[in-house]
Amino acid sequence: MEEIPDSAKTRRHILAKALIAELLVFVLAAMALFVPAGTLLWYPGWIFLIAFFGFVATLATYLSKHDPGLLAERIVLVKVDEPAWDKPYQEVPDQI
User: Fold this and answer.
1) Contact at 8 Å (CB) between 22 and 57?
2) pLDDT digits (tens, 9 = 90+) for 33-51
3) Would you tell me the crossing angle of helices 6-37 and 43-66 to the nearest 10 degrees?
């Protein structure tokens, strides 16, 4: 079997992490939509989920090929070396 270059392995690893994170958000979004609706047969919810997460998956695939560094940066939830000017903006969602 042919050895995959490190850069291709890295891209695949980053894409896999992004898609796993997307799957988790998909499940949470589906619960947020369908639990209050009281049914899985609510078609506007399915249209939204398919359109939104189809776009996110397409974007993640594109970024994994063209700018894997940006994709890797975007899937990290907590950044250790965040600039001081950006920290107040990150605190706001935590307080809501």
Assistant:
1) yes
2) 999 999 999 999 999 999 9
3) 170
Whether this prediction's pTM lies above 0.90 is answered by: no
Supply the Cα-derived Rg of the chain in whole angstroms. Answer: 17
Count other C-beta atoms under 10 Å from residue 30's C-beta. Answer: 16
- Are 19 and 57 spatial neighbours (Cβ–Cβ below 8 Å)? yes
Task: For residues 70 and 81, give the distance between their C-alpha atoms in angstroms, rounded to a whole number.
Answer: 15
CA distance 34 to 85: 38
**Given the structure tokens 């600039």, which residue do they identify?**
83
